Structure of Pyridoxamine 5'-phosphate oxidase family protein:
Amino acid sequence: MSVTETAYQPTERTVPTRSRDRAAYDRELVHAILDGAYVCHLGFVRDGAPVVLPTLYGRVGERLYVHGSTGSRPLRMAGQADPGLPVCLTVTHVDGLVLARSAFHHSINYRSVVVHGVAHQVTDPAEKRTALDALVDHVVPGRSADSRPANAKELAATAVLRLDLDEVSAKLRTGGPNDDPEDLGLPHWTGVVPVRPTYGTPVPASDLEPSIPVPGYLTAL
Amino acid sequence: MSVTETAYQPTERTVPTRSRDRAAYDRELVHAILDGAYVCHLGFVRDGAPVVLPTLYGRVGERLYVHGSTGSRPLRMAGQADPGLPVCLTVTHVDGLVLARSAFHHSINYRSVVVHGVAHQVTDPAEKRTALDALVDHVVPGRSADSRPANAKELAATAVLRLDLDEVSAKLRTGGPNDDPEDLGLPHWTGVVPVRPTYGTPVPASDLEPSIPVPGYLTAL
């Protein structure tokens, strides 16, 4: 699928049937939404039925990576399948609860990315290592350099799937409620409640050597 | 599928191929995980390929409800499909980032529920109204009673899907990192960074009548 410099090419399945004004294909926006999260929901088809599992992911340029045990279902399926495993990978941020005066116009402010494509197992050892570093650094930027890298046994036990960013769309809702004009006089509070994930104080493992301080990349979260 | 009083019956597809100790079927636990969130990721199959979309949901007893425009794809598909639309509905809470000394043992503390089943369009008007109230109250408990209920036109424009809680599993990870014994002397910080969603101060709509105060069910969030 061809892409321009700055945007993904819309396709039949990345153009929504409704709320088209909320859809976006801008590459920088898609990257920002992806880079601001680390858990995706990965969908695949098993025996004709859909399966959706939460999993970590990482991004390296125009490629996403997910990983798992070589024994896990989607990773086995992608390894067996030729030419790969059709997947849908979705990332969602909730930014606010939108309370309108009417129940009907209640909504959520959100930013999401949906990636359609075919996932392939990564076999190149260098790409696998890059992908695993990206997965760790997606959760905690800077962490991969401050942990023991995977050894040969661990690499062999870990399967990595690659999904190209090609058929991609973002969807967003921002702003306040959109009540109907005839509801503006109703006596209900209306507005937006902001929502965001927050990090608590890091809790050291019970066996942490006490002289090891909390690293700067954690206090920066 | 038969269920006991207190637990869902495991099935071939709700028993994971790995990390079986993290799987749970307790009904109260499943309900608690479902009731603590309001966005799910709904998977279905379209033209043989998986689609995963974020959407709101509500729970009434052993039934989940999702809604959307009567023009949206999954809702049209469920209306057309006989005997319904096979779906997988997944809800995930992230509770912590687990930083081990080895990259390999990095993990996430989480609680998730995966529901497999066939979704059906709700046609009974009373059930539809109950479902829509549940959807609003799932996001903000108490809100449906403090907003204008849907009128006939709005009800007609809204499709509601029902999914029975029948083939259901929870999956959880809790606790600290599980480093290998030979890594315990490595000089890397190790522990857990708690994560939770937080609500900001409610932002009134620009056209809110100033005498209407922030309701108690919002300050209680």
